[in-house]
Structures are given as structure tokens and as C-alpha cells.
Design a protein that fits this description.
The protein is of the alpha+beta class. It has a single domain, classed as Beta-grasp domain (Ubiquitin-like (UB roll), Roll). Helix content is 16%, strand content 22%. The protein has 2 helices and 5 strands. The strands form 2 sheets. The protein has a 3-stranded antiparallel sheet. A two-stranded antiparallel ribbon has the order 2-4. The chain is globular. The chain starts with 10 loop residues before the first helix and ends with a strand.
């Protein structure tokens, strides 16, 4: 499944607007951790601070993010965390 993301919106906002993808959401501000997923490929910019209670520094280095806190810089491949 694919969707378009505007440059000023988060990946989560684009998914919700497009009504696509299996994604849950809560606070939309980086604090609840509900939109936690992994970026498998592509470049993104972190635009909000992610709660370390939900995404550790090690996890972030492996591409685990909160979708409400990032904007794409290229096409992304996103997957659920198993």
C-alpha cells in the first residue's frame, strides 16, 4: 500500500488523511508510543522529540520511530514491529 505525504505533514498525518495502512494513533505528539513502527528503507527527518519510554536511542538507530514525529525526505518503506 502506498500514499502521498506532503512536505509539511508527519507520516502519521499522511496515513490518516489517506485512510491507509494499519496504524493506530493516540496523542499525535510523540508521547504515547502508539504509532511506533520501523522504517525499513528511505530517509526521514525527525521533527518532534520521541519519548524514550517508547523508543530507545538504540531502537532509533535501527529505524524504529514514532510516525507522528517524522517527515519523509524520500520514499519510505514502513513496517510493523514484530
Amino acid at each position: 500500500m502506498s500514499f502521498l505525504c506532503q512536505s509539511e505533514e508527519s507520516v502519521l498525518a499522511a496515513m490518516l488523511r489517506s485512510r491507509c495502512g494499519p496504524v493506530s494513533h493516540g496523542c499525535c505528539g510523540g508521547g504515547c508510543g502508539v504509532c511506533r513502527m520501523q522504517i525499513k528503507a528511505g530517509e526521514y527527518q525527525k521533527v518532534k522529540r520521541m519519548s524514550r519510554a517508547h523508543v530507545s536511542e538504540e531502537e532509533e538507530k535501527k529505524g524504529i520511530v514514532l510516525l507522528c514525529c517524522i517527515r519523509p525526505q524520500s520514499d519510505l518503506i514502513i513496517s510493523k514491529i514484530k
